[in-house]
Amino acid sequence: MSAVHKKAAAALAVLAVLGLSACTSNDPDDGNDNLKGGTSDAEAGSNDEAGDKITIGFSAPAADHGWMASITESTKAVAENYEDVELVVAEGTNDPQVQIQQIETFINDKVDAIVLLPFDGAALTPIALEAMEAGIPVVNVDREFNDPNAARVTVLGDNYGMGVSAGEYICSQAGDDSDAVVAEIAGIDSLPLTQDRSKGFKDALKECGLDVDNRVAADFTVQGGEEAATNLLQAAPKIDYLWNHDDDQGVGVLAAIDNAGRDEFVMIGGAGSKNAMEAIKAGNSVLKATVIYPSTQGADGLKLARLLAQEKSVDDLVEVEVPRQVQLYAPVVTADNVDKYLPSAFTS
């Protein structure tokens, strides 16, 4: 195992121990085993056995992106499995001030726990601290606060690990070809998550003597992906491998590739959308793999918030308290294993 992948492997170990879910779709009725469980089928004495009735407040950005929509829908689906949980879902918003007001309402209503995916982690830190000081445990999802004391638990994807997984996949495909041309279409460059993904990608490629020859940034949208890919393809007459950070913007990336009539390279996606996985399974495009960034972080946060509010721990751990941080793994999906992940993918 390479040194750069140790972090991702550690995250997988944590995930395996906790038994938390990996990814989900926008449709809670698609038979996704990851969202099953709950009080109705719980064994006596288990964590899923019905306990005291609790109220959990949930707030996340607007569902204007397939991945973000899945965050909210999977959280709702998991909550429905628990007869002892009342989930209060605030309307999705990309306005930090509105989200702050939502958390203030949760505090005033004295909910038992809050699951919060902040649009802006720094902006939401003070109100999260206020909730914690009021005795309401906060589960921070995906975008971290500035102060670790603002959350009792933080549930994260592995952005650095995504880059590592994508880079290691390219290394495995390139073999001894040290002249392979590698391109990258990032998300929003100003975001730490994009910076982490690019760093992991660069570090993994370095392990096999490759580097990023051409790089552009997009904005996680279809339109932005198409524009960025068009610019990249014009600037790079030859590409062997292309990693696109996000499968939603990847819809636009693939459109640009089709328009340019380019098919000489292998493309790797990011996040793990249903659209991308279907293309991988069909095998009729340049897209041959995608790296999962779990969209169940809110659902996992809901389960952890329930345990906190009911003063329970995690069944499979010796510890008597819920952990402070859970980081989910970033596996690579290819034609060889796509059937394993396709039923639980979100729709772009």
TrEMBL record:
By its UniProt entry, which InterPro entries does this protein fall under?
Answer: Peripla_BP_I (IPR028082), SBP_2_dom (IPR025997)
Domain named Periplasmic binding protein: residues:
56-312
What keywords were assigned to this record? Signal
Q: Which family does it belong to?
A: Belongs to the bacterial solute-binding protein 2 family.
Q: Does the keyword Signal apply?
A: yes
**Domain of life of the organism encoding this protein:** Bacteria
Tell me which Gene3D superfamilies the record gives: 3.40.50.2300
Question: What is the native source organism of this protein?
Answer: Nocardioides aromaticivorans
Please give the name of this protein. Answer: Sugar ABC transporter substrate-binding protein
Query: Where does this polypeptide localize?
Result: Cell envelope
Q: Provide the leader sequence positions.
A: 1-22
